Amino acid sequence: MRILFLVQGEGRGHMTQALALAQIVQAAGHDLVGGLVGVTQGRPVPAFFADAFPAPIEAVNSPALVFDKKTNELKVGTSVLNSLKKSKVYFSSLRQIRDAIRRHRPDVVVNFYEILGGLAYARYRFRVPIVTVAHQYLAFHPAFPFPPDKPLDKQAFLLLSRINSWGATLKLALSFDELPDVPAEHLKVVPPLLRQEVLDRTPTTEPYLLAYVTQPGLRVQVEEAHRQRPDVPLRFFHSGVTQPEQVVDDTLTLHAIDGKRFLDVMQHCRAVVTTAGFESVCEAFYLGKPVLMIPQPNHYEQAGNALDGQRVGVGIASDSFDLDRLMAYLPNHDPAANARFRQWHSRCTELFLAALEGVVRKK
């Protein structure tokens, strides 16, 4: 089976999932012929992905989300306007995708939530089947807990996920837990795709908490929480820190962003405080760590992730760094939820290969 990947390059989550699936399909003897990565115009494919992806890579200019530099709040209107201004660039990108499909002659294309994939299939009506992969497609499942009181945000989120999956033979919805498929939506529920570096780790529990937040306002909250509860050891990763390890006092250590060090610290922590990005929450869940999930401001998708994680027992959703609430929750966290997640994840290889091979057989 010849497989071509199309990957959203915004953030690390979709690229990390693509690397995990690449390992699965190659171990099964399938041929990964290439990867197209959607990036902001003028930016390269992130090095961590380019260095690890086991096939030729091609960058494709793609629309990007815009966040406020001070608050990290998602600016929906600005994101849309910027994309419209660059429409000529993105039409060229659609032709680039068309040419890549013709050149590689894949049996199936796998799209990791790259909007250009849906637009290309709508424009060119390729005969090659496309399978879309993302946690976001769980929004088409009746069990997904939408954040309340934001009907316009909900419709925008659903529309974006619909556009991403235009032309898809099958949508693979990454889920914290096993749920029934939704045949009317061509939706199959599958386990998350996790890095082998996570799966190979044996977790232990030390007394410190791990915090990783991107919003400048939350950094202030973290520092204030530490002043109020200096008895709680805290290791804090933040983009504003330049040193690998900066000891502030006996119970607070700051870290610069580093993927391997972050996993090292997560492996041994007591609990995790992070934004509600699906990938990092899943990694903590797999390693048995309760999570305080704080969605980025105005980020509807992350708000839904936090509620969904709370539904299955990952931890608690919050709009602030509420250390007292987290500490009160920890004695009541049910480790059986983590065990169920590990059991669900153990079927990942089986379910993904069956889905892709089934689509190719039917084409």
Structural features, described:
- The chain has 363 residues and is α/β, with parallel strands linked by helices.
- It has helices at residues 13-27, 47-52, 76-85, 87-104, 115-124, 151-164, 196-199, 216-228, 259-268, 278-286, 300-312, 323-329, 335-345, 348-362, and strands at residues 2-8, 31-39, 57-61, 108-112, 130-134, 170-174, 187-190, 209-212, 234-237, 246-249, 252-255, 271-274, 291-293, 315-317.
- The chain is globular and about 60 Å long.
- One of its GO terms (molecular function) is glycosyltransferase activity.
- Pfam families: Glyco_trans_1_3 (PF13528).
- Keywords: Transferase.
How is the topology of this model organized?
Elements: E1 2-8, H1 13-27, E2 31-39, H2 47-52, E3 57-61, H3 76-85, H4 87-104, E4 108-112, H5 115-124, E5 130-134, H6 151-164, E6 170-174, E7 187-190, H7 196-199, E8 209-212, H8 216-228, E9 234-237, E10 246-249, E11 252-255, H9 259-268, E12 271-274, H10 278-286, E13 291-293, H11 300-312, E14 315-317, H12 323-329, H13 335-345, H14 348-362
Parallel strand pairs: 1-2, 1-4, 2-3, 4-5, 5-6, 6-7, 8-9, 8-12, 9-11, 12-13, 13-14
Antiparallel strand pairs: 10-11
